[in-house]
């Protein structure tokens, strides 16, 4: 008999549900909340309300696409954290309700581990141990992955996440939230060497992205004094130069960490891994350093429930279930 897991993701501004059958993704329904666009960032209260509004229809859609009925579900996986508390609460409450109603076990999943385990949705899958650069709107981490659930953070950001830097700088350039994708699009037509921005270096395998944000702010302020149209006229070159600096900062630490740990299996994960500049750069590095690199499909980079389901599947195989006393944890660590 098939083993069906339903997975729920609601940690930030994507409401998503997925059906996983025997470790294979049958459906992955994602509803991206557009309500935040005009605010320049995610508004937590609006996010949790939108999750409440849409979770039932997203779940129904995921079941329909998978061709699986609610009575055929064997377990329910959900994001316990990290993320926005009010948003996490919607997913966890739904999961508990379904668990009680259908008498099926609950599996709590760490969102950041799930981003990494998205690599096990499809082939080619990384070999253990591998190094994963996890880059999202809330995190920037270098993780040594020894097994499905055995992961160690070797370095992380001391301040802003790289996705936050993309989005905040995107806002300065006049893009709606989240601006990361638009910087990527404009960078394709721009000259990455046109403007120079300082890259901040911190000890070890850690990162810092607050400095470049401030540097861009002051640079734009000065240029706008002389020419009020400076941003519009130079949007492509600005995007390319900023993106180039962010990529250099990420890759410097990735190279150092891979060398020190003598690892040639390299993966990227998280929403910012959708960036075409980062993807291209990594392919170039893999040729130069003879790495085997793993880059997830775009739909498995940004937040999605399929990655929660895959993580849930491996937890279920290990018998790592939770009970109804589980609570959301906005700062969940692993
Ligand atoms: O993993 P994710 O969907 O949510 C979090 O867990 O944070 O990542 C969202 C982040 C946002 O900062 C968004 O701007 C960024 O991923 N992002 C990109 C691109 N696509 C999404 N950043 C740069 N280039 C992209 N193409
Ligand atoms: Zn995420």
How are the SSEs ordered, and which strands pair?
Blueprint: E1 4-9, E2 14-21, E3 24-32, H1 44-66, E4 75-81, H2 85-102, E5 106-110, H3 111-117, E6 130-135, E7 140-147, E8 150-156, H4 162-172, H5 180-187, H6 210-226, H7 230-233, H8 235-260, E9 265-269, H9 276-289, E10 292-294, H10 305-317
Helix pairs in contact: 1-2, 3-10, 4-6, 5-8, 8-9
Bound molecules: 5'-O-[(R)-(carboxyoxy)(hydroxy)phosphoryl]adenosine and zinc ion.
5'-O-[(R)-(carboxyoxy)(hydroxy)phosphoryl]adenosine binds near residues 180, 184 and 302.
Name of the CATH architecture of the largest domain? 2-Layer Sandwich
The gross shape turns out to be globular
CATH domain class name of the largest domain: Alpha Beta
Uncertain stretches: none
CATH superfamily of the largest domain: ATPase, nucleotide binding domain
Strand-residue fraction?
Answer: 15-25%
**What percentage of residues falls in helices of 4 or more residues?**
40-55%
Structural class: alpha/beta
Q: Strand tally, please?
A: 10
By CATH, the topology of the largest domain is Nucleotidyltransferase, domain 5
Q: How many helix segments? A: 10
Ligands present = 5'-O-[(R)-(carboxyoxy)(hydroxy)phosphoryl]adenosine, zinc ion
Number of domains: 2
> What can be said about the biggest beta sheet?
5 strands, mixed
Which strand order does the major sheet show?
Answer: 3-2-1-4-5
